[in-house]
Amino acid sequence: LTSAFDPSKHTFIDLPAVIIVLLVTFILTKGVKESAKLNTIMVIVKLAVVALFIVVGVWYVQPHNWTPFMPMGFHGVTAGAAVVVFAYFGFDAVSTAAEEVKNPQRNLP
Q1: What is the rounded average pLDDT for all residues in the chain?
Q2: What's the predicted TM-score (pTM) here?
Q3: What digits encode the pLDDT tens for the residues 57-78?
Q4: Is 6 helix (H, G, I), strand (E, B) or coil?
Q5: DSSP string, 7-76
Q6: Whole-number pLDDT of residue 38
Q7: Residue 17 pLDDT > 60, yes or no?
Q8: CA distances from 61 to 42, 45, 57, 64 (A)
Q9: What is the C-alpha to C-alpha distance for residues 54 and 48, in angstroms, rounded to an integer?
Q10: Angle (deg, nearest 10), helices 32-57 and 15-30
């Protein structure tokens, strides 16, 4: 087995990802109330980032880039919609199963 960290092969440890995973793990071990507070804060930050993106990006809209509007035609739109619907169904199935399990920490991956 080779190590994931090998600068000679241009593979490095992704330190921000490691820190974020450790931080989220620590918060999840603290309990539901603290996790709910952090979740609320993260949702507010995400909404602020989306709003900032819209406010800044509105000045860079160029209508001549809108053609062709649907390069793959209606078939591309329906294919994309199908992917989104099946992804939602998968998430819904997992969340519904989690509600019905007696011990979700043990029985759900």
Answers
A1: 85
A2: 0.43
A3: 999 999 998 888 899 999 999 9
A4: strand
A5: GGGTB---HHHHHHHHHHHHHHHH-HHHHHHHHHHHHHHHHHHHHHHHHHHGGG--GGGG-SS-TTHHHH
A6: 81
A7: yes
A8: 28, 24, 7, 9
A9: 10
A10: 140
